[in-house]
């Protein structure tokens, strides 16, 4: 058997044909397929507007900018996330701070958030934005976070990079009922892919318009948005803001359009795989992912926790032993504030205790729709041998 990765894409012939069709068409970028993909995503997740970009990192950046994040502002997020969730605040000149995780869901803890908000209010340092991350595809307690947003006056960006296809209280993640903007990633390890790619969805027309402008240099060609100029001069477009080139290509969107048709079946397959892990790993001295009853996870990841007090093997030993038998397990994630770059900002070891505990125990085992029964058997047997 070849090495089993922890995640991988599922591309079929229809996906390939769709990309080739674009290659033969008139437009490789700024054509009709990106808007079609945006509509498909908006419809799927019941959002009013969808803005396609070249990565979730870009989507997070322009989401922060559209919500007015700048110098002097603070953005809060979970420490157990990919660094991009925090970096977007720094791109805007803002500061970033971290709220510890819930020990059961591994998502940002609403209790900890509330405590931290009360303290921050006393010293006048409330966050402008909070970015909850639907870790592993399991939705955060959005109703709780939204209620605190109303009380303390912060805006919310959902980092749903792991969670397209997930549901919260029976409604699709991305409907942004409890947030201002929701961001998706289409990197190949995520639930659906466009190679590289991302999307920001929102129900706020003004935010959508700003994000469309920011993804393409801050340029407009809508006459109504243009500044008055002499009528004998040629002004077919104007730059009215400082934006970026964060556009998605037509090739990427064509791939995405094919992928979204299979999204539900991908997530169902991930549920089947997680169900088998649940059944067959439950006797081992590890914790398996607990699911909140409000949540229908997209199961981007399936992290087991190697409990140092229960198991003879450490996280590191299991990691190395699995690598040695060609099974890629991985750690998602090192707390962001422990990264050397963040340490230079003054963050210290132990800042968020539940996050650090998670970091010392968690290992994501392979999880992707094309994982075969035989491969999963191999993974389960290897874990049993190591841990019993
Ligand atoms: C993958 C990921 C991102 C970044 O996505 P890109 O599309 O690679 O930029 C951001 N946040 C989280 C939680 C992620 O997993």
Bound molecules: pyridoxal-5'-phosphate
Could you tell me the number of beta strands? 15
Which strands sit side by side, in order, in the main sheet? 1-9-8-5-4-2-3
Strand content: 5-15%
Sheet with most strands: 7 strands, mixed
Question: How would you spell out the order of helices and strands?
Answer: HHEHEHEHEHEEEEEHEEHHEEEHHHEH
DSSP helix fraction: 25-40%
Average pLDDT taken over every residue: 97
Count of helical stretches? 13
Which of globular, elongated, flat, extended, rod-shaped describes the shape?
globular
Class from helix and strand fractions: alpha/beta
Low-confidence stretches: none
Spatial gap, N to C terminus? 24 Å
If you compute it from the alpha carbons, what radius of gyration comes out, rounded to the nearest whole angstrom? 22 Å
Question: What can you tell me about this protein's structure?
Answer:
- With 388 residues, this protein is an alpha/beta fold.
- The chain is built from 13 helices and 15 strands.
- The protein has a seven-stranded mixed β-sheet with strand order 1-9-8-5-4-2-3, with helices on both faces. A three-stranded antiparallel β-sheet has the order 7-6-13, with no helix packed on it. A three-stranded antiparallel β-sheet has the order 12-14-15.
- Helix 3 (56-66) packs across helix 4 (84-91), helix 3 crosses helix 7 and helix 5 packs parallel to helix 6 (142-152).
- The model has no long low-confidence stretch (mean pLDDT 97).
- It binds pyridoxal-5'-phosphate.
- Pyridoxal-5'-phosphate binds next to helix 3 and helix 4.
- Pyridoxal-5'-phosphate (PLP) binds at residues 55-57, 81-82, 84-85, 133, 159, 161-162, 185, 187, 198.
């Amino acid at each position: 058997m070849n090495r089993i990765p922890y995640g991988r894409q599922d591309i079929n012939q229809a996906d390939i044909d769709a990309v080739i069709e674009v290659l033969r068409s008139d437009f490789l970028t700024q054509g009709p397929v990106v808007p079609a993909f945006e509509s498909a995503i908006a419809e799927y997740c019941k959002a009013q507007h969808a803005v396609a970009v070249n990565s979730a990192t870009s989507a997070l950046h322009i989401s922060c900018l559209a919500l007015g994040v700048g110098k002097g502002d603070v953005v809060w997020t979970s420490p157990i996330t990919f660094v991009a969730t925090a970096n977007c605040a720094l791109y805007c000149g803002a500061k970033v701070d971290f709220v510890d995780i819930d020990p059961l869901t591994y998502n940002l803890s609403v209790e900890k958030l509330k405590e931290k908000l009360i303290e921050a209010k006393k010293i006048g340092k409330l966050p402008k934005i909070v970015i909850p991350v639907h870790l592993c595809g399991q939705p955060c307690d959005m109703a709780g976070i939204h209620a605190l947003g109303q009380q303390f006056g912060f805006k919310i960006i959902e980092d749903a990079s792991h969670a397209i296809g997930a549901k919260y209280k029976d409604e699709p993640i991305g409907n942004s009922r409890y947030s201002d903007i929701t961001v998706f990633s289409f990197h190949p390890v995520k639930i659906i892919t466009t190679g590289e790619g991302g999307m920001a969805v929102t129900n706020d027309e003004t935010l959508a318009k700003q994000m469309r402008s920011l993804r393409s240099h801050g340029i407009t060609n809508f006459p109504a948005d243009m500044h008055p100029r002499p009528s004998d001069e040629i002004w077919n477009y104007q730059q009215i803001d400082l934006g970026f080139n964060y556009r998605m290509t037509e090739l990427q969107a064509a791939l995405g359009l094919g992928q979204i048709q299979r999204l539900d079946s991908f997530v169902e397959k991930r549920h089947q795989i997680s169900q088998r892990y649940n059944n067959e790993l439950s006797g081992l001295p590890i914790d398996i992912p607990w699911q909140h009853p409000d949540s229908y996870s997209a199961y981007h990841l399936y992290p087991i926790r190697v409990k140092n007090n229960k198991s003879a093997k450490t996280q590191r030993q299991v990691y190395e032993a699995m690598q040695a038998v060609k099974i890629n397990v991985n750690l998602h994630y090192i707390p962001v504030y422990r990264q050397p770059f963040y340490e230079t900002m003054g963050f210290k070891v132990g800042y968020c205790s539940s996050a650090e505990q998670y970091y010392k125990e968690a290992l994501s085992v392979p999880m992707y729709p094309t994982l075969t029964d035989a491969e999963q058997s191999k993974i389960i047997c290897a874990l049993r041998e190591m841990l019993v």
